[in-house]
Each structure stands twice: as C-alpha cells, then as structure tokens.
Amino acid sequence: MSFLFGNSGSLDRRAPAKADSKTLPADRPKADIDRYSDLMSQRPALLDEKLKLHGRIIDEFNLAQLEKLSPEELRRDIQAYVAKYIRAERISLNQKELETFTAEVLAEMTGFGPIEPLLKDPTVSDILINTHNRCFVERFGKLERVNVRFKDEAHLLRIINKIVSGIGRRVDELSPMVDARLPDGSRVNVAIRPVSVDGPLVSIRKFAEKPYNIERLIEIGTLCPPMGELLKAAVRGRISLIISGGTGTGKTTLLNALSHFIPSEERLITIEDAAELQLQQLHVGRLETRPPNIEGKGEIRQRDLVKNALRMRPDRIIIGECRGEEAFDMMQAMNTGHEGSMTTIHANSPRDALKRLEQMVAMVGMGLPIPSIRSQLASAITIIMQLQRLPDGRRRLISIDEIDGMEGETIRMHEIFRFVKERTDGNGNIVGYFTASGIRPQFLKELMPYGIELPTAHFDPDRRW
Hints:
Elements lengths: L29 H13 L2 H16 L2 H4 L4 H19 L5 H16 L5 H5 L3 E7 L4 E5 L2 E4 L7 H13 L11 E5 L5 E5 L9 E5 L8 H6 L5 H12 L4 E5 L5 H9 L8 E5 L11 E5 L13 H8 L6 E4 L6 H10 L6 E5 L3 H13 L7 H11 L2 E7 L5 E13 L2 E15 L5 E7 L7 H4 L18
Parallel strand pairs: 7-11, 7-12, 8-9, 8-10, 10-11
Antiparallel strand pairs: 1-2, 1-6, 2-3, 4-5, 5-6, 12-13, 13-14, 14-15
Helix pairs in contact: 1-5, 2-5, 4-5, 11-12, 12-13, 12-14, 13-14
C-alpha cells in the first residue's frame, strides 16, 4: 500500500523482512504483557529508540490513509517498518523481542503508550501513575508497583492530552485538574502542575468488559443471597435508594448491577461527570457534565443536567455520584413521581450519608429549615446501602438500612442486614458472615401491588450466610 507514506518514505510490501513473517496477536495474554514491561526494564535504551521511531513514523505516515487501514494491516505495515529501522540502526533483537518492541510502537501510535498493556490486562482494576517514573496497579484489591514508566514528564503529558482531548476536554496550567474517560468507558482523573507538586498524577478506574451482576457479586462474597433478593425486589418495586461508601468500595459496580432489574419499558436518564455507568436497558439517555472553557464559560453542572432531565419525561433518574447542589433537585424528583431513582454518595455510614445529603441540600441557599430538609429526605429515600473495602482488599456490603419516617426532628432508620467481622485468618483475610437484624422492612407492603413477596426466613436473625 504505497500511499501509506508521504514523499519522505516508502514501504515495499513485495519484499518483507524475514523477521516480519508473523503478525502480532490482537490481544496479548498476561505473559506477553509481562514481557512487554520487562523488555523496557532490562533495556531502557529501547525506550529512547521507541520514541524516536514513533516520531519518524508520525512524520512519514500519511495519517489520513492510516485511519482507513484495518488493525491487522496497520500492525503488519508497522512491523515491517520497525524491522527495517532495527536493521538500519543495528539494534540486536531476537524474534520475540522484535514482536514486543513493535507492540510498544503500535501502542504508542494507536493507544496510550506505556499504559496500553495495563489497560488490556483483565487482572488490573486501577492504574495509578505518580509522575512519569512511578506506576502502581491494583490487582484483587491489593496495590503493587509495576515496571511501567515514561521517558520524561513531557511524554506522560502527551499521553494525558491524548486522553482528555478525546472527549473534548483540556488540562493545562489554567485547568490543572480534569475528569475524563477512555473510549472503553474507563474513568480517568488527572492532576498536573501547579496543583501536583512533583509532576502529573493520573488515576484510571478501569471499565469492566463484562459488568458485574448481582449473582456474580454474591459469588465473590460482596453480599448474600437474601440481600440480593431484597434489593432486586426494591428496584423492581420502584423503591428509591442510595449507595454509600468510600473511594474504591464498588459503589458504581453495585449501581450497575442493580440497574439490571429495572424493567426494560421504563425510560432512564443517567447523569455523570464522566460517563461510566453500564446500563443494559434499551431506553437510556446519558448526560455528562462539561467543565468551563478557557474563558471560564460554558460549564454545565450536574444540577443543570438534573433540571433538564426532569423535562425529558424520565421514569427514573440515575446520578452516578451525588456531591453538591444537585442533591436538592434529586430529592425533589424522588418526591414528585420519579420513585425508584438511584445515586451514590461518599460517606462512611448510612447516618453519615444522610448528614452529607442534608448539607448538600442546604448548599442551595433557599433557606430551608433543617427539620424540613430532613422530612423531605425521609420521604424521598427508602434504602441506604453501605459498602466498605476491608483491609484484605475485599469489598463487602456491610449494611442495608431502611428509612421509615421521622421521630421528632430526627430521621428514623433501622438496619435490615449487616456483615459481622469475626476474625482475621493467617493469610490476612477477614472472616465473617452476613445476618439479618430480625426487622422485616416496612416497604415490603409497597411491593404487594407488583406481586412481589419475600419469605420471612430471609429476615431470621438466627441465620448466617
């Protein structure tokens, strides 16, 4: 395909190098990913060669035609070009190393450079970049350092700009912090100088290729079967709920799992800072906030989107994370015909979650008295779920609480299920069990019109799961 290059270069398909007879697999297994990182670690000079080669390819490739090639054609042509470069520069690489080096160049061109293999590794849930020469990942709830690095800060900034520009956002000295997302939906947060003193910080929460459902969460021990049945009944019966927890406790994962129980005929509107919800229904409208432009104009806040969503005839509104003035509008929506709406909130306990919501509603500045705010919250929300990430890295739904009205000026609530920690075994794993409090939820009577009933045995306090 001679038109692939401009006048300054050419590629002869008729006489490929012997080392180019194999093409790289589209998806490399973990062993290849480890080799990918090890090669750069053992031979750091190759990092300079990779970046130099990448610059030459960008200069010589006809980029307009590049976009028209299939991934396999692009991989084959780049491998041929890399082999030619390796021979010309007299760089000693065996066949396996050539394939790995070519994969690095290809990732640099079409993906996100050194972090591309981590994005493809299914065992990695979080990627945490602390400046250009330190990178950590989370696997199975535990953090570990990996042999992934960037040449310098400029190299990392180039990858960052590639990420944020893909969704029309920017990061610079005037806007040194940004939320973004990758094409696959992975959530990204970036902070650069001057707010990040030592250099760019990047946090990537990876998007699950196969969203977790309740059955899978039960299987891995996040919750027990009676909990799952109760939550399934609540979602189908249009009970409004909130998922509370700290960072990385699995709030969005649980929200996605619960959304599977929403009837397909209902119209859903989702509102997020960076779209990451994976709703499976057909009738979903997704809204995303927008930061201000360089002149400080054009910002679209979550509260603006909630107000707009109410004009879009939603059956339910789902906010990815409630953290500001939008709490007031969400509360109003739950109280005016949008029952069954859901959101998440950062809090350490169900009672703390209510206090945070109370503070958020007060931020609107309408002068509502605290007793009035609490009364409206008690009317709008029925269930609060509390997630926790335990010291062993496992996520647990440690409490499900029901709000059942007011007692004076205090919101009355009681626990339905809880997780009891018994001990820590020799491997550092938390050993415990789920149990019921013995209180049958008041909202079950609201489910009767839907033909939903739950067995009394689910709420037996003497049972353990």
